Structure formats: structure tokens, C-alpha cells
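Re: the request from the purification team.
They wanted to know what the chain is likely to look like in 3D before they choose a buffer screen. I agreed to run a prediction and write the result into the notebook, where they can find it.
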Amino acid sequence: MNQRITSRDLDAALSRYTRQAARLGLLQPGYRVALETGSRTYGNQYRLSMVKPDGAWSASSTPAGDPRLGFTAREAWDALHRMADTLRDVADAQEAPR
């Protein structure tokens, strides 16, 4: 993907990551994963956070992988897809006949 990464692209990547985490049972009922926007200019990284059912945020834990995704939308998109691919591979291996 060589074009500019949009917020829609990031939302789709987050959704893919969340689906794979849920597939493995890594998301507790009622919890969701949120993406915090970063900025290279201001030194803020894109991050994943867990949102509890009561709406409280927990930046210290995510279903799987490092919550820090990078300083640019491209880095965040790449990291989300990399983690989703890994989760998918694990789920596929668990579901494969032995």
C-alpha cells in the first residue's frame, strides 16, 4: 500500500486486529480496543488502549502485542496488520486438525 493512510484505513486495520484477538478469546466481554492518534510533530505515538465496559480507559493492557504502534499513520497501519497476521496464524494453527 503506497498511498496515504487515512483514518478509514486505520479503522479497518483496528477492526481486523480486534476480530483476530476476539477469535482467540483475548477480549473480555464488554471490552473494546481503541486507537489513540499520534503525532510525530508533537512526539505522541499511535497507541492501543482497552476500553472497559464502564467506559474507563486502560492504556497498560491490550489483547496482544505492544500498545505503541509508531508515530505515523503508516507505522500504526503496518503494526496493526502485522499483529493481526500473527494472531490469525496462531488461531489457524489452533484450529488445524492434528
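For the purification team: The CA atoms of residues 67 and 91 lie 20 Å apart.
Please add any questions underneath this entry.
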